Amino acid sequence: MELFYSVFYSFSALVNSDMAFLFITLLLALIFSYLSPAYERRQRQVHVTTALLAVFAIAIFLKPLLAVPRPCQLGEPSLIACPLDYAMPSVHSAIAFALAICFVGRRSFWPLAVWALAVASSRLFLGVHSPLDIFGGIALAVFAVALADRVIPAAAVLHHRRRLKAGHRHHELKRKLIQIAFGLAALGAALVWGIGAAAQLVAVCLLAGLLLFHLKSMSVRLPVIDTLLIRLERADAPPGLGALTFVSGLLFSLTILPPALALTSVLLLSLSDSVASLAGRGTPHRLPHNPQKSYAGSIAFVLFGAPAYLLAGVPGVWMVLAAAVLESLPLRFDDNLLIPFSGIIIMLAGLR
Predict the structure, then answer these.
(1) Neighbours of 68 (CB within 10 A)
(2) Contact, 179 vs 274, CB < 8 A?
(3) Which pLDDT band, with edges at 50, 70 and 90, does 228 fall under?
(4) What percent of the chain has pLDDT over 90?
(5) Which residue in 10, 114, 161, 297 could disulfide with 238, CB within 3.0 to 4.6 Å?
(6) What gap in Å lies between CA 210 and CA 113, rounded to an integer?
(7) Does residue 127 lie in a domain region?
């Protein structure tokens, strides 16, 4: 045990050095990008670089906005000198997990996932981050990779992610009902046990989802899970992608946003967005600026977001309206990630 403690302390101290951590991250990115098949190597390198730069850019923006102090700044013990900057989100964790997520569907994912877990654990071990900071870093990593997918099309980089077989029925209603049930369960957990406990439960689900998504990207047969994915995933999406982005949106909401806006965001993700999607199906009256969306869907989104007033008061109402506008725009970005971003807009506007 003493040997393990000594080795892990040395590792944690090494990773805590920004220069050493950046050097190791870039080295890992170069090595595993080079090990990728030649026909996707260049796209992979650009994709990884874009994701890591997105983590840096978003973290620099979020840290002073959220202004969450580190545990050691609040008097908690730490094994090193307490850093002077803010805690949320953990940039070390975000960078490590973003690198791993970029290689989902490749054998390189396994060592990079171990690296990410080790880095996140080292931040807790040193006492410079709380678990909530780590979960925020994981959520940021998913957002950054999703943003990189818009710069480097996912079809070009992640072509190996097979989609559901043609001919399987598309059970949109069942999929949305499960989304509503899971989201409302997370909302109930946050109200009863606190946002921190709810974030822990959602983070566990997200990590499990990443693992399953990786296995399905590798075409691993998972009998029971395969049946669920066939019945409950969108027909035009890689198996499990929709559920993964939904859970990522929940985790981002619970970790990054202030409590009242976090509860509002979970409500919108689970209930409003699901009902809006169902209400807008097949309706002829489409939005003039976005034919993919309908008037019925937008109205349903706002109506079923009305309980946000009970959760957050007037700021909750503003967030519902901001999310409805964002959701209606032709941004080609997943609604599960856009809705939590509306909470950031409310914070910037000083309406929280």
Answers:
(1) 19
(2) yes
(3) low
(4) 49
(5) 161
(6) 10
(7) yes
